[in-house]
TrEMBL record:
UniProt xrefs under InterPro entries: YeaO-like
PANTHER family (alphabetical): CYTOPLASMIC PROTEIN, CYTOPLASMIC PROTEIN-RELATED
Source domain of life: Bacteria
Listed Pfam families: DUF488-N3i (PF22752)
Protein name: DUF488 family protein
């Protein structure tokens, strides 16, 4: 099972981050490419604009958001498997501008990536 962390885009990169993967559809405001030090930006695996706007980081909508986001990811199987292969056996950090990491798409994606394939 890969070791995958989640970190805010505004936090300083550290060597222990391993692969740094931006998981937001939009570039984090006020952060340069040099500062983020990214290894990948799989935009196809981010929540759609419609879903992101509907959710609006409203905690009461998180369960439904998680369900809808998983449905979107199911349609991106090839890209999801490519990301899973990229992080396999390596430390990785999902980078997001989101403030509430536990109620974010990054947490949903992290759990999916860490789940063993059947």
């Amino acid at each position: 099972m890969p070791s995958i962390a989640i970190k805010r885009a505004y936090d300083k990169p550290e060597p222990r981050d391993g692969l740094r993967i931006l998981v937001d559809r939009l570039w984090p405001r006020g952060v340069s490419k040099a500062k983020l030090q990214l290894d990948a930006w799989p935009r196809d695996l981010t929540p759609s604009t419609g879903l992101r706007k509907w959710y609006g980081h409203e905690p009461t909508r998180f369960a439904e958001f998680r369900h809808r986001y998983k449905a979107e990811l199911a349609k991106q199987r090839e890209q999801l498997e490519a990301l899973r292969a990229m992080v396999k056996g390596r430390p990785a950090t999902l980078i997001t501008a989101t403030r509430e990491l536990d109620l974010s798409h990054a947490e949903v994606l992290r759990r999916i990536l860490q789940k063993k394939k059947k």
